[in-house]
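Support request, please re-run this one:
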Amino acid sequence: MAKLIDELIAKAKQSPRRVALPEATDADTLHAARAVLDDGIAQPVLVGPVEEVRAAASAAGVDVGDMELVDTSDAAAADALAERYMSAGRERLVSAKGARRKIKKPLNYAMVLEDLGDVDCTFCGHVNTTGDVLMAASMMIGLADGVDVPSILALAQVPGFAGPEGDVIALTDCGLNPEPSAEELASIAIAACDNVRAIMGWEPRAAFVSYSTDGSGESPSIERVREALAIARGRRPDLALDGEFQLDAAIVPAVAAKKVKRQSAVAGRANVLVLPDLNCANTMIKTIQLFAGGKGYGHTLSGFRRPVADSSAAPPLRRWWATSRCSSSPRHSSHARGHAAAGNPSSSFLGVTHDLQDPHALPRLDLHQGGRVRGQECLMRANVTHPAEELARFDRAVDQLDYRIKTVEAELDRADIALDSMDAFSGYCGGMGPTRGGIFAIDQTVCDHVLNCGMNHPAILGAPILFSFAQRTGKPAFAVNQPDTDELDDVARITGYPGVYRKSHVHCLNQKECAIRFAQSIGTTYDQVNVIVAHVGGGLSVAAHRHGWMVDTNDVLEGSGPFAPNRSGDVPLKPVVSLLAGGTQTKAQVMSVIGRTGGLKGLLGTDDARQIDQMIADGDPWATLVYDAMAYQTAKAIGALAAALEGAVDGIVLTGGVSHDKIFVNAVTRRVGWIAPVTVYAGDFEMEGAASGAVRALDGTEPLMTYTGDPSGDGFRLAGAPADVEA
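Re-run finished. Output below.
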């Protein structure tokens, strides 16, 4: 097992690299630094408050007298470094003021040293979390040109394996991207090949792994792998890339000879395995370790402009520094240049959302770094709090505009984010009224409409907040699939109660984002698929998407559809009327059950799926029946919409917070899986949807619309049609 480590260390000794250590007050880090300096493996650069570093070294019994120390507490040196950083000729995500504040932290200081070329690599993660490391690298160094997402490369040493590089093979992505899109998977493969060449000196031969070999199987996941291969070949024709291959066809020459009936430089001889998703990658690594007694090295972050090593929590010393070697080799990144996506692959987008169903919910603030299609990472996320006593000063939501702008600015300032570093502003904009879905440019017309729409809810402030930032910076602002989007077919609007018509109030931004992602996963576009999306969170919306239009759905605000974790859904009307007429319940109580305290909360006393799972596990028959009933009603709604789509359904998507729960997902899937394949995008993707919409607007892949204030539907003009009671 020591052979690979010895090889890596031998390579390191040939040309020792300067490695920044921002965790220099950690005893393990100091002992490792001493060992690698004594062995000639690397030149450690200790980054931190110098007196604290020396005190830690003394306590650990480590002599650091002959090591280079960079004192992060030296204000003058830090200011000079920040000035060099800001004037280095690259666009930065932070302001000059923000850079000075950021580099007070040793982790950010080290990343700046590396960005400027003062060190060859930053080695961290023994104290800082992977999230900390990713944030620092994304903010201070940035992704390489043409790279959509960071990823993790691992080197696996497998006893008994006789591959082209002996018993060692490279695997990616082993830790960051759970379900990469085709574009992201292509980017991951390219970054892995460049890293393997730089680290090991191999000529990379990358196999895109699947359960199919050259068309022996068909599924959306296989199509995604094929699309990724095509994209990667288009970007980097110089690389040996091939697939889709089953694992044995990728690495065993005899199997490749039987299964791959064509010439291939990769089949049977792959030294890089591009794994389709994190489920596969994690399982493969664990299998190698548990069943084959193998080892994994690296945890190398791929895709950044400069090399960054993220160590595991407490690996053995020699293995730890072998990991450092996996990141400190110089990158051969010239091929990545010039392969940027249309638009700006490193664009930054600020998004603001409010929960339209809950006026007391905290506004969410996200900063995304964008790339092609879904290629974006979240660099910052915050819930901006507004104390009740502060909001009590305002009579109406519209009066809170200036106050809320300042709170967002303060949050950005705390995160050292420069407003003028944004390329666009995008968000969830309530109060626009019924429109078709898509991307609207936020202008004065939008702001005038929402501020005067008569709606007393902070969601109406989304567009004015974004527009104020756009005016100040000269950058565009977008409203993406705004919450009042209404694209219903006329036939879907009719009810049997004269004057009451169905309208569209759903989780539109997440609905459409998930439908877009599903379309991409099967190698097509949103306007080419029919998909049914069920969002199951506090509210529950099920919608039919037909070739880019959301043509039928339940109305979450008005209480229709399946019952939800805290909403009643459809109920027989007469008993509710009797409750009101008899005075048993007030209108306020009924409205509360419809929108806040009904559903699982009213029936079981909780809307937390984890608690309900435990009740079921404890043998509670009522909890079992009620939870299954919600899944039953969701499945029934999906089936009804399949009929609305006349049976032409390409896929079914489950999303929202409850979609994390396997009991619920399985109960729905067993009832509707015969209609179409079921895909799960657990959680919500509203902020990601706002960011990806901004990408599509900037790169021209989706047309930008101008808002007029005219509704997408203004009632029926047919003779005999009753007037809308809500008009």
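The chain has a mean pLDDT of 85. The longest strand covers residues 295-302.
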